Amino acid sequence: MNASPRKLTLDEWDDRHEQLRRDGLREPTYGGPLRRHVVRDRNFRLQHLQFDNSPAALRLWNFLLTENQRLHQARANGDKLVGAMKDLGTVPVMAYSLPSMRAFYPDGAWWTPCLMECGDMLLQQAETMGLDSSFCPVRAMLPAFEHGGHFPRPDLLVCSAGAICDDFSAIAQRLEHLGHPILWWEMPRRRQPDSGETACALPGGLSAPKIQVDCVRAELGRVGQALGELAGKHLDDVWLADGIRAANRVRRTLESLRRTVYAAPAAALPALEMLVAEMLAIHFCSDREESIAVLDGLLAEAQSRARRNQFAVSADAARIFWVNPVADLRAMNLLEEIGGRICGTDYMFTHALDLIPEDLPPLEALARAALADPMVGPASDRAARIVRECRANGAEALVVSRIPGASHCAREGEIILQFARREIGIPAIELEISPVCDAMRTGLRSRLQALVEIARDRRPA
Amino acid sequence: MDVFLTSPWIPPEWVRAHGLQPRGIWAAENLQRLPCPLSAGVCAFAESAVRFAQSRAESAAVFSTACDQMRRAFDAAIFRGQRQAFLFNLPATWQTAAAGQILRSELERLGRFLLAMGGRAPSPEQLWLEMLQAGRTRKLLLESARASSSRGFAEAVARFHWDGSFSPPPPAAPADQIPLALVGGPFLASHWKWLDALEAAGGRVALDATEMGELSLAPPLESETVAKDPFDTLFRGCLDNTIGVFQRPNARLYSWLKPRLASRQARGIVLWHFTGCDLWRAEAPTLRETFGLPVLLLEACAEPGAAPRDLNRLQAFVETLR
Q1: Which of A191, A431, A442, A443 has the fewest Cβ atoms nearer than 10 Å?
Q2: What's the CATH code, domain B2-124?
Q3: How many domains does chain A divide into?
Q4: CATH code 3.40.50.11900 region(s) in chain B
Q5: Which residue in A128, A134, A186 has the most chain B C-beta atoms within 10 A of its own C-beta, making it the best mutation to test that interface?
Q6: What CA–CA distance (Å, rounded) separates A427 from A268?
Q7: Residues of chain B with CATH 3.40.50.11890
Q8: Which of B145, B142, B152, B155 is CA-nearest to residue B188?
């Protein structure tokens, strides 16, 4: 079943899937040809994407694209569903610590307009609900809640408040006004400890004053109590510690995968599949055990390719560090089409990639992990990590991808770009990618091409 | 030393008790003198605050985390080399002990910052005096709100935020004008001409519920008898009386608005917000649904003054309510 790495269109995947089946491919229950996600779920964007040709990538895509179905099935099986919002990586670790409980991010609906090429009308519906294009595409979440047809309505909604994006906070508040009660928990803006304050080390080489860690720990205690009440069980430290260990297994595998692909001279897996793989860290795509299996498969494929010296993107490609997730998945294909490759990322949830400390009381460990969120601290902290990873992975250029309407993008892009130019002097650009970026494709291509050319020109002769 | 505050929820009496001069940055007449180049999505008020603070190197600036724009404006100020700046973490929630601890510790931390800026450690008596004085002025302003001219009230509140003083606002001219509520974000000195335009169009602000209007005027102290622990009283006052669109849930804002909209007989709401302000902009449908009043969105942009198109909209809004 091992074939040389290649990118396939959806049509080509139809044939490839047939061939794999004939060769004895065994798929999980959610497996099948990718085509069905277009026919059944109207995910038309798939027709314009290029996919990796490995069975591991097939499994990844099927896992991602069946999430809503799997959630509906879990509900039918009696599982409790938790809608975690905004914290990107902490509350799900707690929820999956309890038996028969799943957590997902309704925020994830922000990709639905892309996948359905706006055929879902979610953005248009959001506009009629008072949230126009001045808000981030995550506004798609609101009509998805109100009108159904996507994810099931969660049994409990939890959202962090405080140091979060204004657009998300405003959308979540609107959601509550429309009759969806939310458990809000406070997330202070992370700061450096002042002299005389007790400092706590956070994942990612950060630190925060103890008072902030104590606050978040208390708040997560409240969340844990609500989760326990929903499950009818007390969420104790033993369960939480197990949950943290399981989450760290996902994070370790992902870290190995990122190292194998990003740090290597050439990329064993394409940028698009790596983006989706990284996303599994935040809530395990609603199935923690299966996400481990999916990541194990991708890691094995990447390592096998590296051993065989076969790569999805050539070693000649310009090494690009990418900041922020793209609203249109096609942008990741575009980067590789014009001769770039990803050598490092900050998709806004680096705290969900870092290991959660296992040598601390579980809630304390989770509080520290939550406070390491790049979005709750100063932009300079985020920029410093980006620069560090650019250096470590030999980035030749930096792309800050703006999310249309997102309140944080207005400022932090400028700071990250200037910080990177000052510290490492690599070429850097900012660009905005809308949920379906076809209309801007020419402009995007030109900008990325210019960046790639400049990066290559700077190579020593 | 002047200490410029970017949020009305940072208690000026705490700054004054340290022997420093608190100044609401929004009340500065030259805050937004010229349009400034903005990258897409940046709030012009937040950017103006950064530039204003930068231009006054001998002063200090206190930013707040009440919105993402201002929180990140602080990042920008620091990145551009501002050293005498402080970011006050204003919790979005208030119902829990954790939120209270954060607020209390931020007040203490602000106190340490003010000392580092050359302030003096306040005695409890001094703090209490400042709290009493500020409370009395707020009370006078609140009492004058109903009967004042729209612009006169805005100017009187701004004066209080600028130097702590009270000057009685002129009474409203008796006329058959449409009572409206002005709800929303920072309403700066450069925006006062909107109030003239509104009155010329036949409307008047019966309720100034902008962040720097009545919303910023906490109720006076319950008792003028010296408190055992004035700092604790200050902290509790902040925790209990902060009412903002940024709070989660923002039920306090709606509870505050409801009786006032009714008692002032507001017939419509002008929702005022800066470009890029998601927090206020998103409230438009909720305001409509909750109060059953027509809502007109007016957007303050990077350029000071009123754009003809928006003036036209305001006039049409008042006309439809006749």
Answers
A1: A442
A2: 3.40.50.11890
A3: 1
A4: 148-320
A5: A186
A6: 25
A7: 2-124
A8: B155
Tens digits of residue pLDDT in A396-426: 999 999 998 888 888 899 999 999 999 999 9
Given the candidates 3.40.50.720, 3.40.1010.20, 3.40.50.11900, 3.40.50.880, the CATH classification of the domain at B148-320 is 3.40.50.11900
- At residue B176, the pLDDT reads 87
**Set of chain B residues whose Cβ sits within 8 Å of the Cβ of A173:** 248-250, 282, 286
Q: Does B72 touch chain A (CB under 8 A)?
A: yes
With tokens 């850097």, the residue in question is A428
Tokens standing for A118?
Answer: 């706006």
**How far off is chain B from A19, nearest CA to CA, in Å?**
49
Domain containing residue A418: 1-461
| Model confidence at B38: pLDDT above 80 | no
Give the tens place of pLDDT for each residue, A125-140.
999 999 999 899 999 9
Burial A87-106 (b: 16+ CB within 10 A, else e): bbbbbbbbbbbbeebbbbbb
Residue B98 to residue A219, Cβ atoms within 8 A: yes
B102, B112, B275: which to substitute to probe chain A, counting the most A Cβ within 10 Å? B102
Distance in Å, alpha carbon of B188 to nearest chain A alpha carbon = 21
Query: Considering chain A, what is the average pLDDT of its residues?
Result: 96
Give the integer Cα–Cα distance in Å for A400 and A398.
7
> What pLDDT score does B173 carry?
76
| Predicted ipTM of the assembly | 0.95
Inform me whether the pLDDT recorded for A167 exceeds 70: yes
**Residue B179 burial class via C-beta count within 10 angstroms: exposed 0-12, middle 13-18, buried 19 and up:** middle
With contacts defined as CB-CB under 8 Å, which chain A residues touch B39?
Answer: 410, 413-414
pLDDT of residue A335: 97
What is the spatial distance between Cα A221 and Cα A236, in angstroms, rounded to a whole number? 10
Q: Are A102 and A96 in contact (CB under 8 A)?
A: yes
Cβ pair B92:A174 closer than 8 A: no
Residue A184 CA to residue A360 CA, distance in Å, equals 25
